[in-house]
Amino acid sequence: MANRITLADFFSQHGKTLSLEHLNQQVSLERSLTTAQLNRPGLELVGYWDFFVPERIQVFGNKEIAFLDSLPDDDLYDMMTRLFEMDVPSIIFANNLDPKQMILGRADEYGIPVFRSELSATDFMGKMNELLSSEFAPTTNIHGSMVDVYGIGLLFTGRSGIGKSEVALDLVERGHRLVADDVVKIRREGTHVLIGCGHELLEHHLEVRGVGIVDVRRLFGIRSIRVQKRLEVMVELAEWQEGVDYERLGIEEEYTTILDVDIPLVRLPIFPGKNITVISEVIALNQLVKIYGENPAREFQSHLMEKIKEQSELREYLSRDFE
Amino acid sequence: MKKTGEIVIKNEFGLHARPAAALVSLTSKFDSQIFLIKDDTKVNAKSILGVLVLAAENGSTVQVEAEGEDAEEAISQIKELADNHFGTE
Predict the structure, then answer these.
(1) Do A160 and B44 touch (CB under 8 A)?
(2) Which long-range contacts (CB under 8 A, 24 or more apart) does A299-305 make?
(3) Within 13 Å and on the Cβ side, how many CA atoms surround A186?
(4) Residue A256: CATH number of its domain
(5) Residue A317 lies inside a defined structural domain of this protein
(6) Mean pLDDT value of segment A179-189
(7) Which residues contact B11 (CB under 8 A, 6 or more apart)?
(8) Residue A316 domain-assigned?
(9) Is the Cβ of A208 closer than 8 Å to some Cβ of chain B?
(10) Any chain B CB within 8 A of the CB of A181?
(11) Which residues make beta-bridge pairs with A206?
């Protein structure tokens, strides 16, 4: 799980997006960020330091700068010393504001990187927050294959050699899109969305037993792949076992939990001659129908109940028809 | 039964395709679930692509985790294979 990133890495990946300029280049960027939270130090500047979290990047906007400009040099010096003594990871000036030379001098002395951004403080905080949240998002690797089937992200799991990759290949052949094979990286966005993608080294390679490693993108072209997809259903493949109760109605839904998010789980028993590919398409379509607010199994059930009720009412009516 | 161990990659070019194939063919013989962990990445040791993803270089350390009846035997044989340069070179 990624729980830290160096400023250097963050800056090289996102510096352009955030239009960041590193003002004191002699200061090293090898410090690590350990939190996705940011802070605008308004309250601290007026002297309220309770609850101050020094691990956060400090963002200065128009307000903060105007306040700093209003301070006598001695007070500004003390203020900056106090802030930098906390060893904040970095300070950033929004709105392309130029920090006073004295602030830069103090930052150099404490080895605190100072950046400037062309964005307004609000825009900057918004974008930066989004980028940091995704850097610090909880992640996990799952051994399986992930395919986008009719727009539904299906994750196939099961023991090695059960045929996950073969199912994925078969689905690709039918026009669906491979997200990842073998190593599926899952990350959580917000509180209940899981996104699956492949490993950067593997991309869309896939192993077929007896053939070896093949590149799906090269064989089937760009339309056969996608880089990432929301994970919506987990399909667990297992050999058919005598005595195991498999779902027959589909009225109750089973769930599994990945990174604290509940994901519908379908346990699929497999045996020779069973077409897992078509069943996978049905699973995806059925999920699609459920997303649109319908549940065919439950509707069938309530239809049946109505019919039974009607018949019993008729039976009762007739049973009282004495002659 | 869960067992853990550690191997050091001694192959000059690291854990590339051929040594990985040798490793996977060994791990596949065991009933235990076997995982390899390097840095933050944990992969299934019975999957060739999984093992390749580790991109384990010469001198690097890889954790081995096995769970099942034959876990102990699996780990000791994996260690032996690693010490023998995965039967290559």
Answers:
(1) yes
(2) A301/A249, A301/A251
(3) 26
(4) 3.40.50.300
(5) no
(6) 92
(7) B19, B58, B85, B86, B88, B89
(8) no
(9) no
(10) yes
(11) A214
Q: Are A102 and A147 in the same domain? A: no
C-alpha A168: how far from its chain's center? 22
Torsion (CA) B16, B17, B19, B25 in degrees, nearest 10: 140
Residue of A nearest to B45 (CA): A160
Whichever domain contains A53, its CATH number is 3.40.1390.20
Examine the predicted complex and report whether its ipTM is higher than 0.90: no
> Which tops the pLDDT comparison, A249 or A310?
A310
Q: Which two tokens stand for residue B35?
A: 């995982």
Q: What is B2-87's CATH topology?
A: Histidine-containing Protein; Chain: A; (3.30.1340)
Give me the sheet containing B2-8, strands edge to edge.
B2-8, B61-67, B33-38, B41-44
CA distance to partner chain B, nearest, from residue A47 (Å): 41
* Separation of alpha carbons A226 and A180, rounded Å: 8
A233 falls within a domain: yes
A51-81 in b/e form (b: 16+ CB < 10 A) is eeeeebbbbbbeebbebbeeeeeeebeebbe
Chain B: closest CA distance from residue A249 (Å) = 32
Helix (H, G, I), strand (E, B) or coil at A209: coil
CA dihedral for A31, A34, A40, A44, sign (positive or negative): negative
Q: How far is A182 from chain B (nearest CA, A)?
A: 6
In whole angstroms, give the CA distance from residue A18 to residue A230: 26
The answer to whether residues A18 and A153 belong to one domain is no
Number of domains in chain A: 2
pLDDT score recorded for residue A148? 96
- Looking at the structure, tell me whether residues A251 and A147 fall in a common domain: yes
User: pLDDT digit string (tens) for A287-297?
Assistant: 999 889 888 88
pLDDT in tens, A21-50: 988 888 888 888 888 889 999 898 888 888
**pLDDT band (50, 70, 90) for residue A1:** very low
User: Annotated catalytic, A303?
Assistant: no
A9 vs A246: CA distance, rounded Å: 48
Shared domain check, A144 and A204: yes
- Among residues A73, A248, A320, A321, the one annotated as catalytic is A248
Q: A182 catalytic, yes or no? A: yes
* Residues sharing a CB contact under 8 Å with residue A22, sequence separation 6 or more, in sequence order: A11, A15, A29, A113, A114, A115
- Gap between the Cα atoms of A9 and A321, Å rounded: 86
A164 and A128 within one domain: no
Active-site pick, B16, B42, B79, B85: B16
Tell me which residue range forms the domain holding A213: 139-292
